[in-house]
Design a protein that fits this description.
It is a single chain. By secondary structure, the protein is an alpha+beta fold. About 40% of the residues lie in helices and about 20% in strands. It has a 4-stranded antiparallel β-sheet with strand order 2-3-7-6. A 3-stranded antiparallel β-sheet has the order 1-9-8, covered by helices on one side. Strand 2 and strand 3 form a beta hairpin. The N and C termini lie far apart (about 65 Å).
Length: about 220
């Protein structure tokens, strides 16, 4: 039979009692914890969805909507640049968005080169080393300038929108005071949101989508 010194026995007992004391809050609800003495630890062990249950939501970005917004921003930017161009405003006809591109006709052929240079400045590079731009700038029929969003530009815009969405979601879930939410990118255009302990998915959806355009 093993014979432990008395101090080791009491040490083991103390460690066991400390473990029981630290685990005690997990046996009570949060409302019951509020009624316990102040010296009792009041933190629950953070459990995942598999042990505690909760809400799981998969969000997906609408790439078509990202493209539409990108075209709208380019149209407004082109309008402003042409109006405020160095050397005087550049008169154009039919500036607008149609068939997935932004296009316009330069009224005075002498202004064509200036207009092309302005549009190429707006079609900023994507990344630092890729050599690609957010829009292709073409001249058609001698006077019509067409700006077409590139695949690289659309991917960069989607990535930026997703990163912003993750931060927005994180801030809003923090408003619930929940513990250890999981917010992860999945692929190029999806976000997985898991909130242990939140049993009402509709509450989570309402919180996430109350102002931002998240589906």
């Amino acid at each position: 039979m093993l014979d432990f010194p008395r101090w080791q026995v009491w040490g083991i007992v103390a460690v066991l009692l400390a473990g029981v004391l630290l685990a005690l809050p997990n046996l009570f609800s949060e409302s019951a914890l509020a009624r316990l003495p102040s010296w009792v630890p009041a933190h629950h062990l953070n459990l995942g969805l598999d042990l505690r249950g909760g809400s799981h939501i998969l969000l997906e970005a609408d790439v078509a909507d990202v493209r539409k917004q990108k075209l709208e921003v380019m149209e407004e930017s082109a309008r402003g640049e042409l109006r405020e161009a160095d050397g005087g405003a550049i008169p154009v006809l039919d500036l607008g968005t149609r068939d997935g591109v932004v296009s316009f006709t330069v009224r005075n052929p002498a202004d064509l080169d200036r207009a092309v240079e302005l549009m190429r400045t707006l079609a900023r590079p994507v990344g630092q080393l890729s050599g690609q731009r957010s829009f292709d700038v073409e001249v058609r029929d001698g006077a019509r300038i067409v700006l077409t969003p590139t695949a690289a530009g659309l991917a960069a815009e989607t990535d930026s929108a997703m990163a912003q969405a993750v931060e927005v979601i994180r801030r809003r879930i923090d408003e619930l005071g929940t513990r250890e939410p999981t917010i992860l990118r999945q692929g190029d255009n999806r976000i997985v949101v898991q909130v242990p302990g939140l049993q009402d998915p509709d509450q989570l959806k309402a919180l996430i989508g109350k102002t931002a355009r998240l589906e």
